[in-house]
Amino acid sequence: MPPRNMRPSAKPENTFLTLKRIFSYMHGFGVQLIFVVLGIILSSGAGIAGNYMLKPLIDNIERSLTDGKWDKSGYLGILTVMAAIYVLGALSSLFYQRMMLKISTTTLMRIRNDLFKKMESLPIRYFDKHTHGELMSLYTNDTDAIREMLSNSVAQFIGSAITIVGVFTAMVIYSWRLTVIVIAMLFIIVKVIGAIGSRSGKGFMAQQKAIGAVNGYIEEMIDGQKVVKVFTHEDEACAEFDKLNEELCTAATRANTFANILMPVMNNLSYIHYAATAIAGGIMVAKGIGSMTVGTVVSYLQFTRQFSQPITQVSQQLNSVLTALAGAERIFRVIDEEPEEDNGYVTLVRAKEGPDGQLTETDERTGCWAWRHPHKADGTVTYTKVRGRVEFDDVYFGYEPEKTVLNGITLYAEPGQKIAFVGSTGAGKTTITNLINRFYDVPDGKIRYDGININKIRKSDLRRSQSIVLQDTHLFTGTVMDNIRYGRLDATDEEVYAAARLANADGFIRHLENGYDTMLTADGANLSQGQRQLLAIARAAVADPPVLILDEATSSIDTRTEAMIEKGMDSLMEGRTVFVIAHRLSTVRNSHAIMVLEHGKIIERGSHAQLIEKRGKYYQLYTGMFELS
Amino acid sequence: MYRTLFSHVGDYKKQAILSPVTIIGEVLMEVTIPLVTARIIDKGIKAGDVGYVTKMGILMVCMALLSLFFGAIAGRLSAVAAMGFAKNLRSAMFRKVQDFSFANVDKFSTASLTTRLTTDVTNVQNAFMMFIRSAFRSPIMLISATVMAVYANPRLSTVFLFSIPVLGTAVFLIVAKAHPRFEKMLGRYDHMNSKVQENLTGIRVVKAFNREEYEIKGFCESTDSVRRAQVFAEKLVIMNMPIMQLVMYATIVAIMWFGGNMAVKGDIQTGQLSSFIMYVSQILMSLMMLSMLFIMFVVSRASMQRIYEVLAEEPSVKSPEGASQEPEDGSISFRGVSFSYFGDMKNLVLDNIDLDIKSGETIGIIGGTGSSKSSLVQLIPRLYDTTAGTVMVGGHDVRDYSLDTLRDQVAMVLQKNVLFSGTIRENLRWGDSEATDQEIEEACKAACAHDFIMGFPAGYDTDLGQGGVNVSGGQKQRLCIARALLKKPKIIILDDSTSAVDTATDSSIRKAFREKLADTTTIIIAQRISSVQDADRIVVMDAGKITDIGTHEQLMESSRIYREVYDSQQKGADE
Predict the structure, then answer these.
(1) CB-based burial of residue B354 (10 Å sphere; 0-12 exposed, 13-18 middle, 19+ buried)?
(2) Average pLDDT, stretch A32-47?
(3) Sign of the CA dihedral with B389 first, then B392, B398, and B404 last
(4) Does A363 share its domain with A415?
(5) Phi-psi label, residue B336: left if phi above 0, alpha if psi -120 to 50, beta otherwise
(6) Closest residue of chain B to A255, computed from CA coordinates
(7) Is the confidence metric ipTM above 0.85 for this complex?
(8) Which of B74, B196, B239 lies at the smallest CB-CB distance from A94?
(9) Which residues 184-243 of B have a C-beta within 8 angstroms of A?
């Protein structure tokens, strides 16, 4: 896990590629995009053209003043053209914005969906290495930044570019001499933007970092709020918070000051530009340099105002565009992550057993499952009945290469057997179960399932044949019914009730406000830990798999309730291969085989009676309950 | 609500007020500059008076510099004020949360509190900065530009009598209609985010049950509904700009028509006419800004509401004023105690409890899931207040002690415990910030944590990472016990604190407790009979009531529930 105050940077690494990739999400909108660009061109073009029409209008009036005769119909004609241009501009602006709204919202939806799809396919290992907050901010902060860019900045950028080019061209045509001033001004503007921009950029980076530190601290302290209170640590927490908060305030003020100053600076530079142009133009008219007319100077002055506006806009947008691109890169980096590897080709199929014991594939719900195993070498397909036999052959494993957690585990679980793992925390009990369902992978041939190398079995089919109840039960937003049905989506209501009864959950569920239709919130806060475990057991029961993994599944259920659900658990376990992990030795006593683990090794194995007889570690653990000297 | 929130501008009030004031300076310059440009054109360039043009040009540069100066100051001031406001808000909320009782925290949930302190404050900060920068700027701009226009040519400015109300009404209608749509959109956003959150925490369940496709389908539905809500809300707002353009363009055309007629008659000069056009954009743009401001306000109002809820929340457990007494010893008594998490007598989780615990006694508590063992002990350090009856510690009602005094004397190791980022030593010092290394080591030895700590290469200086991720569940529990021991309390409560610790270690921890903490009242809640078997007395709880009290031997005789629990754990042991 990265240290909490290291927030991702605010600068994109490869602007062009990232932009290209964002645009690739707009597929299917090719025609619309062309219309959008046309709309932007028309809309900003109309602004320039409309202003351009001011000159003939003014000239018309000036002429009438000198001639003493007003060309009213000519004037009206120009005015009509101007009105038409304006109407066209406003309409195309409405048109492209409406279209862009559709494109940008769809693009965002596609990016979010892609991100989520990839997230669901990432290996568990990835989630070990990244914090929830880090991944969560991809969906909130980073997509919001892209949204901002798509709905505002893109159009403004295109519009501004068109305006800048258009106005600049018009200026050169009107008077190349006055354009020299424009270029000089442009030079100053670029310098100023560069100076302010780099300061504010640095400021924003510092702010980002400070925000990360403050948010991290808030998250941690609020999460541990109850501990803070128990230890009356409130004052210390406030003192540390004030320090971080002050740092954030300083950094944020600095960053925003520069961002705020940019606008008045640009605006007033444009006035100075105006004044300089007016003086130069005035001199030129007076001296008759370059056949300069009053009308030209007046229009030119209008242009100087129009010229600076888009530059200000672009420079204002620059920060948000950079932030958006940096965010997009973070999102794409996740999308580019390697998904959980799955080269499995052995699949799970419904089967029918013929009188001669021959298995054939069927669509009927026979209750009999088989592994369909195609052989590449000779093109034949064999079927193996799913029984739930699991074997480990000298398995070594570590979450990190240099730290092995399992050191040469060898074990067999025959179909229908209950295998228990006991041992102190960190001995590797959970790791073994994580390998059986391939949350983590081991080298070929080390773990076999019904005699098949589990790396050859398609992951989804492998997991379909197993059910797991974890110590940390996770329930999902939805009704109690939905949560139990999570185990098997096509389970009927009756099957759900039966599973709940089996787990002894039916009683408390019926006492809930709306029974099975009671809504559970994300963290299932309205249920006790024990009740949540009962629901998780029901969820596993409804899945009805040949292999069942219970990882501390009853640790939060008191032993008396456990004794009450024991019958249900026993019928749940019947005919299945069950792996049980428990601290409580009373839970594992009736297992066929108990494995005592220490430092990733099986140090003892046997039935409860055998192990007691042996007077080894198990005996010590077991009798430790009584020897309280 | 707004008064409460904005009172937190506090020390930054000066900047918050000065910022709009300087903006007035900037705006005044901005609206007078078109006057100067009109003169440059009409009196200077047309008359060919280069000297006048130069004079006016220099005046304009000076005005621009002045405007720049005001603008820059305003930018600085508004940044200081808004960031300071955000700082104060965060600080006030953080302090408020520190004052919260467990009941308050439960009400909001920790996830929601975190969002309120982070995202919501940022939203309000940005809205506030925008507000002090524009809320005065736009109206002043609007008024002064209108005044200037009227001053320049009263007859021509009657055009604004039409365009301003038209634009104003249109903008108002759009904003009013968009408001509920935005609220709906934000709701959809929340739903989408909670789906992501759920999948992050429950990824193992999703994978174990092969529900990736199912979850993806649900998520895609959610993003699609966000998209639809967003289009629905924003398609109104995007009409703002074209409508503004249309009104502005219509105004310009009208001015050129009427103005042209006037200019031909010599009633107005062409320079004045073009500066009039400048006013058109200034006036209508400021109207636009006002509507933007309004939308911003609507979007941030939800955030303001959420912040306000935190600030307005009354801590349900408060220290009594002027309480200075110390508990005399570690005795505890419950007198007719009833308790409900909702504070009413209907949903009682504890029902009329009477219990006396002598100082120095070791009490075990056994009971089924939901029998309210934890609820009972949480009343001792006043994590919650009783709904009826009194809890006494050291001879006085717990409500008569200051919270600090009480909690310093009652150490509690919670069921769901957390360690904080930092080293092991730093975490242990939470118990006693002045603890010597020797004291720390002793506490760790008593909690059976010393050995595994020394097993780390960095020993007591091992960094734990956020949430104590670098230690296992059992190790974490032992560190939490050591941390509580360092407080040297009169009463220590272990709420199922050794569930992840193996039985052998569990028993040696209890042995250390008996030897080293003989004078400390100890309360142990446990699932395992073995954890409480050697206590002086064991309390058996069922459905919020105490059913039996006695020693192990007595209870084996008299308590059916106790025997059942015992049997469920011993079955097979005698085979």
Answers:
(1) exposed
(2) 87
(3) negative
(4) no
(5) left
(6) B79
(7) no
(8) B239
(9) 192-212, 214-216, 219-220, 223-224, 226-227, 230-231, 234-235, 238-239, 241-243
Strands (E), B9-57: none
Residue A91 lies in a domain: yes
- What's the CATH code of the domain at A543? 3.40.50.300
> Under 8 Å CB-to-CB from B512, ≥6 apart: which residues?
B445, B446, B447, B448
Q: State mean pLDDT over A250-255.
A: 88
B47 lies within 8 A of chain A by CB: no
Cβ neighbours of A460 in B, within 8 Å: 210, 212
In the block, tokens 């959970």 appear at A430
Whether residue A429 is found in the same domain as residue A529: yes
Q: How many domains does chain A have?
A: 3
Residue A318 dihedral angles phi and psi, to the nearest 5°: -55, -45
Q: Are residues A448 and A596 in the same domain?
A: yes
DSSP characters for B311-337? HHPPPSS-PPTT-----SSS-EEEEEE
Model pTM score: 0.76
Question: Which residues in A lie closer than 8 A to residue B82 (C-beta atoms)?
Answer: 256
- Give me Rg for the CA atoms of chain A: 36
Rounded to whole angstroms, how far apart are CA atoms A100 and A478? 35
Interface test with B, best of A86, A116, A461, A527 (most B CBs within 10 A): A116
Amino acid A302: pLDDT: 75
3-state helix, strand, coil in chain B (%, to 5): 65, 10, 25
* Span A437-482, pLDDT tens digits: 888 888 766 899 888 888 889 888 888 888 888 777 778 888 899 9
Query: Is A123 a residue whose pLDDT tops 70?
Result: yes
Residue A523 within any structural domain of the chain: yes
Tell me the mean pLDDT in the region B10-20. 84
Task: Specify whether A358 is located in the same domain as A281.
Answer: no
Position A624 scores a pLDDT of 53
What's the confidence (pLDDT) of residue A1?
27
pLDDT at A625 exceeding the cut of 60:
no
Task: Please name each of the domains of chain B with its CATH number.
Answer: 2-312 (1.20.1560.10), 332-574 (3.40.50.300)
Residue of A nearest to B208 (CA): A463
Which candidate from B117, B211, B572 shows the least CB-CB separation from A590?
B572
The whole-angstrom distance between residue A8's C-alpha and the CA centroid of its chain comes to 14
Within 306-365 of B, beta carbons closer than 8 Å to A belong to: none
Residue B148: phi and psi, rounded to 5, are -60, -40
- Is a pLDDT exceeding 60 seen at residue A3? no
The tens digit of pLDDT for each residue in B58-69 reads 888 898 889 889
Count of C-beta atoms within a 10 Å radius of residue B470: 16
Count interface pairs A-B at CB distance under 8 A. Answer: 470
The parent domain of residue A30 ranges over 9-335
For residues A379 and A420, membership in a common domain is answered with no
Residues A490 and A516 in one domain: yes
A222: nearest CB among B113, B194, B238? B113
